[in-house]
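Data card: per-record layout.
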Amino acid sequence: MSAFDRLIAKQLANPAGVGGQLVCAVMNRQNRPLYEATLDLLPPCPGKVLDVGCGNGFVMAMLAATHKGGLVGIDPAKGVIAEAKRRHRRMISQALMAFDVGSAEAIGQPSDTFDLAYSINTVYFWPDAEAGFAEVGRVLKPGGLFFNSLYTATTLGRFSHTAHGYRKYEPAELVAAARQAGLTAESIPLFKGGAFCVKAAKPI
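The structure for this 204-residue chain is written out next.
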């Protein structure tokens, strides 16, 4: 694998600096169909919503057009959280958005806080999928839903940079991780099976 592929994979996992800003911009453009497909799955929610791996807040801004209950985004990359805070100052000042450094396995929010959570194209970089689902389940209210969207292992295998730093999943494996974490879960195919969303729920 080329050094360029390694650099791209590293920046996608943890964007940093000017290169990270460029990667986020390209990623947001290329992934917009998956963003839109995921948002179409989300039910109306008057309460608090969590974006796990929010990047610069691009998807949160899309959701904010219809959701007024409060959006919280976390990301392990300090640089992109700083950029998100800069981009969305007005929404933050109106208490419609909040951003903080955090990860799927260490969200840093109180238990039973969120009515809804989602994550798009981040689970590849989680150290442990089951631990990530368990932590999301902790911060969800009973009955809360989590939508985790990603491309299949087959789809990702078409891109050389995904050979480095990516954990690739097919639906059954990720559904099993969610269930092992104590959530109910099912897989929803997207793009004729080229991607999928694991819809998980915290038991009441």
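Known properties of this structure: The first strand starts at residue 49 and ends at 52. Helices lie at 3-13, 17-41, 58-64, 78-87, 89-93, 129-139, 153-156, 171-180.

See the next section for split statistics.
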